[in-house]
Amino acid sequence: MPDLRYRLLSSLCLLLTQIFAVSCTREYSECAGPKLNLTDLQSIRNSGFSTGPLSSLIVPNPIEASKSASTTLSEVSLVRLLEDFKLPNLSNPNRLENGFVHVRLHSMNDSEDLLAKPTNGGEYKYSLSDPKYSQVMAYHGVMTALKYVEALGFSLLTDRPLYVMSQARVNGAVPTEVNAYYDHNTLDPKAPRQLRLYGESTYAPGVDREMYWHEIGHYVNESVSGDVGIDRAGENGAMYTEGAALHECLADYLAESLQGQSHIGKWLARNFSEYQPGQPLRSAEDVGRRLLLSDVGSFDSKLGPPDRYGVAEWCSRVLWDIRKSFVEKSPEYGAMLSDRLILSAVSRLPKDASLSDFYSALRQTDDGMHCGQNKKAIRIAFEERGFVATGSVVAVPTGSIKPVSLTQDDKGNYVRAIGSQSSGFVGFEIQILNSSSAAIRNLRIKLESPNGSLNIATYLQGMGDLGPGQVAIVGPAMGGLSYAYSLLAKRTQSNAKYRIRILGDNLAESVDVDGVLP
Amino acid sequence: MSQSRWRIGIVGVIVAAWFAVLRYEPRRVGSAGSEFISQSSVVSLPFKIPMPRQGREISAVEPINQVSALDLIKEYVESHQTALNLQPHHSYSFEEFKGPLGSRIKMSFQQDQIPIVGMEIHFLVNLSGNVDLINSSYYPADSVVLNDPKMTMQEFWSQRFGSEKIEPSHSFVLYRPEGANQLEPAYLFSTMNGLSSEQWVVRVSDGSVISRISSGRNW
Q1: CA distance A78 to B56
Q2: Rounded to a whole number, what is the distance in Å from the CA of A458 to chain B's nearest CA?
Q3: Is B37 within 8 Å of B49 (Cβ atoms)?
């Protein structure tokens, strides 16, 4: 009998061990997310493509590569920092383009002599001061980022070509401003996407890979979110929305994470006197005290809504904190898992997304991808920087709304129409008082046309967080912000009805104000 | 006393098992989806998409690894034309954006092969074949009578800019202004304004500017 008991007990123990082992394995595989080829991904991050003509570049830019803030392109010693990279997927080895990406110098219609061509040995190697060098950097930078996002498991929007101008000019003129633009050309189904880098100075942005990675980040945002328009309001004239800040934040994050450094724009910042040499344009880690949302995300009675880049920098610090938690768990692959989680969350965002939408999307994505194992880290990253996901519901704000006829001055600014000056444009003077004891989170004003008698141009404006007792005023006549911060429409008939909705993340419901234009 | 401990223990095991099952239950369409529906369709949509039943119906067809998300949505849309209030004069096309956790399907609309801008339905389908989210700006707008345009793009351009500037290439579309309940035949084109570009939407009937938007994102 003892023998039988012993056998039964042993069998039971063995069974339990097996069940435990199976459940552990299942737990691990189910919570690791869809399988990734991490070795390939790592190789792409290092731009280690195995095919294509050879190029020679200093990455990401001379300042970062040399670790010297005073470096310029003309420094002879920079040559030692050149690295060889293969340029993948060229459809024609004699041109920097493929079925989707088309690199140009000044414009989409550049003459052949302006375009980079391989040298005798079939290689794309130019001196740093040659404008063709920047074209090679453009192709290398854009393709590395696109290949990386694809390898993470995302399909890309390739319905229209992408033109990349490494030293863009408008009507052939050398720009006096240094800047970079990504144009998604959302509305026009025939218009190509465009990435344009402006500036031909000593610190020309075209030689900096970070610039391409940030700008292509905007394209990635649109692509991964299924072209839903996470900042459609911004495209329609909004001065500020959280969607706009998110766009910039995610573009910074992609560039920073791919590079593995928590800042961006040391090279570009050399063009601006307000930055010290070596000071980055934006940083994903605190310099000094912790940056809180209240430092950058509130409505200011003098300055108006928040600056999108300020909120973007705050947001990139949240994402960097999340990334760090992944890297702590897996120093080798954590960055890639973090990138995948963040981009997957972007794929869940709605039109005109808010920080709250993004926070929820991150947590929902982590549920689906990692069994929610990182939800706590996500929550902490947001909350420690002053974001309150489920704040208390605040009282209904009070205020006033008054429609005004507008016209455009000779600079294109909207001003109040006088007498018979009316152009049919209508703006609104708005005053919103937060009389509750807590801030209204992500205050927005939205314009709707209940009977379709308004052509609405700017349908949404974000105001940021409105502190307790604070007033947001739009309308210069009331001592408030200019009409650029207002909602804007053109009436198509008399007695046009309008509805203004005042929205806030922690308002129980929107405050709707209906009216008829006089 | 010991019997009641056993009972508590057994109940505990059952409850724990129940929670474990729940944890691995594939997620169904739920309140998250409704949240987005209500957000996108508060005023503009006079109908409700039959969201709550949708996930189960679709997931009941076949697992997503055998039938693509795109096929599932196509099949769903075909069989729910009435419920979705799709108008017969609106044809549609689909675009799929794949991601690690599923696909996002964008449904675009046309009338007489002319693209409709400002009206879309987005579906988010997870790997289990359930629809997590639907975000719609579709409106069952009346068919637009497409007469010859009263104003050509050339006429608009020469009136506004004279003959000095070269007329840009343009698209002819049906445009739904934000929140409007009708479509406008319109020309769409882009121009440069300083270093950034602008997209123009111009009404074909009288050459008035419906919208002029900046689409550029800078550094």
Answers
A1: 61
A2: 9
A3: yes
